[in-house]
Amino acid sequence: MTLAHDLDGDGPAVVLLHSSVCDRRMWQRQSALLVEAGYRVLRPDFQGFGESPAPSAAYEEVADVRELLDSLGIDRAVVVGSSMGGRVAQEFASRWPSRVAGLLLVCAATRLLAPTPDVRAFGAEEDALLEAGDVDGAVALNVRTWVGPAATAETREFVAAMQRRAFEVQLAAGDVAAEREDFDLADVTAPTLVVSGAHDLDYFHRIAALLADRIPGAESRELDWAGHLPNLEDPQRFDPLLLEFVRGVHG
């Protein structure tokens, strides 16, 4: 499966992996910024998001990313992941550490921590809305839950459009199970920064602490103004952090 993607610029590679609330469009501003700074930037859509069709057979997001990198001749990159993209990024860096020059995890999800009550409550409400056919309600729930207070109304509408697209693609397809292999965060060798948002759900604060503890040498930073999607909520405050990290890795 070749994921829909954008590849722009020249220079050292940076891979931007999107949240499950969004698609690769969430990184369009940061992609342009990195290209201008002299980097080659890859933004894929995972299967079932954006312009990538929903999976029709067993799949694994991490393997999809590796296949895409192989097809493009990208041997090594800084990998940046938001939420679900952060989960995929940490697993990729654990399984193929030599291919990751730096790892930036932004409000990352993980398979290593059981859901907390706040996440279970969100999931139950979303399931109930979708089962009732209330896609508008499910979209509004996601925007309300995942977009922090610093975001503009325009940003909220943008996230809503991306989430709606994901629902349209996924609801039109049948359920297909993902196949995911085990991994060990202790195998990560890349310089790692774990970023969290003060206004995010408690679950993601716990994940950030776990990742910072288990990834060797990882540093952590909490953004006191951010919710779950800081690069969208206030890019003027997020972008310098991103550039600082990438430049620190690539020089």
From TrEMBL:
Pfam assignment, any one: Abhydrolase_6
Protein name: 3-oxoadipate enol-lactonase
Keywords on record: Hydrolase
EC number, UniProt record: 3.1.1.24
Domain AB hydrolase-1, residue spans: 14-238
GO molecular function: 3-oxoadipate enol-lactonase activity
UniProt xrefs under InterPro entries: AB_hydrolase_1, AB_hydrolase_fold, AB_hydrolase_sf
Highest taxon of source: Bacteria
Keyword Hydrolase: yes
Lineage: Bacteria, Bacillati, Actinomycetota, Actinomycetes, Micrococcales
Gene3D superfamilies for this protein: alpha/beta hydrolase
